[in-house]
Amino acid sequence: MSRDRSSNSGFAVVAAAAVAAAVAYWILSAEEAPSLPFAIAQYVLLASVLVGGLDGFAKCRSRR
User: Can you tell me the mean pLDDT for 25-48?
Assistant: First the structure.
């Protein structure tokens, strides 16, 4: 049962990394945010995806 969890958490880490890369590309390729709250929301979204990915990576590494 623990092996299933680690394989699923590895997939979650890869998925979070892909989402983080897509969000980072979306933010960096945009010319300018239409408003300050929108720009803040973009960076909050990026930060939350990165924190989630790092958390998943830490959980995956601690099980070994």
Answer: 83
Q: Are the C-beta atoms of residues 53 and 13 closer than 8 Å to each other?
A: yes
Q: Which domain holds residue 16?
A: 2-62
Ramachandran category for residue 50: left, alpha or beta (phi over 0 → left; psi -120 to 50 → alpha) = alpha
What's the total number of domains in the chain? 1
Going from the C-alpha of 36 to that of each of 6, 30, 32, 39, 43, the distances in angstroms are 40, 14, 10, 5, 11
d(CA 55, CA 59): 6
pTM of the model: 0.57
